[in-house]
Amino acid sequence: MINIIFFERIFNTNTISIEKLFNTIYDELRNKGLFIEVIKNPYPLKYFWKSIFFFKKREGGDITHITGDIHWISIFLNPKKTILTIHDLVGLESLSGLKRIFYYLFWIYLPLKRLKYITVISEKIKEDILRLLPSVSKKINVIPNCVTIPINVVNRNYRVNKILFVGTRSNKNIEISLKALEKFNFEITIVGKLSLEQSKIINDLELKVTNKENISEEELIYLYDTHDVLCFTSVYEGFGLPILEAQARGCAVITSNLSPMKDVLGYGGVLINPYDQKDIEFALEKYQTDISFYNKCILEGYKNVSNYTVDNIAEQYINLYEKILKNGFN
User: Fold this and answer.
1) How many domains does the chain fold into?
2) Cα–Cα distances in Å, from 124 out to 43, 65, 129, 236, 264?
3) HEC sequence for 150-194
4) Fewest CB within a 10 Å sphere: which of 69, 148, 158, 313?
5) Which terms in the Gene Ontology molecular function aspect does this entry carry (predicted)?
6) Model confidence over 37-48: pLDDT tens digits?
7) Lowest-pLDDT range, 32-41, 83-92, 261-270, 277-286?
């Protein structure tokens, strides 16, 4: 039996996407006969040295797998039996000055130079890393995210009336999509805390918006089930899991023609230029007026999401674990 110890970041109710993903994977790995132990970081970032020593004392099992975010704890772990999963490089995009240098050293340069095995969730993240560190190419394995909610094939009564947004951070780029919605009479639901700018756009355009924060998994599934289109016009993602979630529940998708979103989408939706309001308007109008096209996108979405089942993704991780054990930590 393969024994894997997973190291996770400190729990934060506002950022649970990594935990949600790996909790799904843990269950499947256990079903496949692996022994899984999960250890969470008890310390906030300002005590990062304490975190390093905390995890060093708990290193063990056949393989240690860092599930993301706390890359820097890898610095003192066994580099030949430790895997680090990288979800994005968003810190490099948003930080500047000394904070950016610190992030580069402890989240990217030192972990990637030291460890032998890295997984990333998309080809886009691999490309981003190799632009910074071309020498680590052979260390990187691309293992995509799995869909974390049940796939449910539904027969929808065709009437595009309700639009869903999941996420409100600046990279989600919802401001331009909200402006595109002015010419329509849609009901809109936005999941996530609204910024002052977003609230102002909603009020100025008199959009019919319901805002929800800190919702449960069950509530999120209900929103996918009861909305007609997911509008996910992000300009930066590590993967873009809401695309798969929407497809799994028969909700049509509009997303950006940028990687990794366009790669994740498959044929189950509409690609748009996220900087072009007219392009977003055209996609919304296409769904609203063309029932055949709308239904085709939903069917293609179901086909696409079948490539991202937890069974499929768990097998890819198991193959990597077996490869590491076969190499004998050489």
Assistant:
1) 2
2) 31, 22, 9, 10, 11
3) CCCCCCCCCCCCEEEEECCCHHHCHHHHHHHHHHCCCEEEEECCC
4) 158
5) glycosyltransferase activity
6) 999 999 998 898
7) 83-92
